[in-house]
């Protein structure tokens, strides 16, 4: 049994919760709870970010200048 502090989004303590975790050491319990919360929030993401492919970006396929003799000597 592990006692965890429950906080709201402003960081104020609003209570405690007793969790029955099966862990080898009780001092590892906050780490396990943190990982479970992070996993839950990561899985709740919408995940609709995107980036353009080579075919979708602006600009043609022609080389803008020749490869040799275009730098300063």
Question: What features would you describe in this structure?
Answer:
- The chain is of the alpha+beta class.
- It has a domain at 2-43.
- The chain is built from one helix and two strands.
- It has one helix at 29-43; strands at 2-7, 13-19.
- It has a two-stranded antiparallel ribbon with strand order 1-2.
- A hairpin with a 5-residue loop joins strand 1 and strand 2.
- The chain is elongated, with a radius of gyration of 26 Å.
- The N and C termini lie far apart (73 Å).
Main sheet summary: 2 strands, antiparallel
Helical/strand content category: alpha+beta
What is the strand content? Answer: 15-25%
End-to-end separation: 73 Å
| Nearest-integer average pLDDT | 83
Contiguous runs where pLDDT drops below 50 for at least 5 residues? none
- Kindly state the number of beta strands: 2
| Overall radius of gyration | 26 Å
Form type: elongated
Run of helices and strands? EEH
Secondary structure tally, helices: 1
Oligomer: single chain
Summarize the amount of helix as a percent range: 10-25%
Widest sheet: strand order? 1-2
């Amino acid at each position: 049994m592990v006692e965890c502090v429950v906080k709201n989004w402003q960081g104020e303590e609003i209570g405690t919760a007793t969790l029955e975790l099966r862990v080898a050491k009780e001092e590892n319990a906050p780490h396990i709870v943190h990982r479970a919360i992070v996993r839950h929030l990561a899985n709740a993401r919408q995940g609709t970010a995107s980036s353009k492919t080579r075919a979708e970006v602006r600009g043609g396929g022609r080389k803008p200048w020749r490869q040799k003799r275009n730098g300063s000597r």
